[in-house]
Write a structure and sequence with these properties.
The protein is mostly beta strands. It has helices spanning 26-33, 80-83; strands at residues 4-7, 16-22, 34-36, 50-55, 61-67, 72-77.
């Protein structure tokens, strides 16, 4: 199974964008790119848990990370640059 990333919201400028990722590398990639405001992310995702923090390295943006049963969702600002 491949690791897949998809933007679940329509392309273009918007207030919020939702990105979903699933597959064997989804959580490890998420742990590299997302920094929770408090504490650290667990070694394995816990479905139903969510975290507030920042996503990105050079131009970090505030986001909410939600762990789902077989995927993770990232809810961030919907600007074109942030989503890219």
């Amino acid at each position: 199974m491949d690791t897949l990333l998809a933007c679940l919201t329509a392309p273009g400028k918007a207030a919020i964008a939702t990105l979903a990722m699933r597959g064997p590398l989804a959580w490890s990639i998420t742990r590299e790119l997302f920094r929770p405001k408090q504490g650290t992310l667990p070694d394995e995702p816990i479905p139903g848990q969510f975290w507030y923090g920042k996503v990105g390295v050079e131009h970090a943006d505030e986001a909410i990370l939600a762990a789902k049963e077989q995927s993770v969702e990232l809810h961030c600002h919907g600007g074109i640059e942030v989503v890219r």
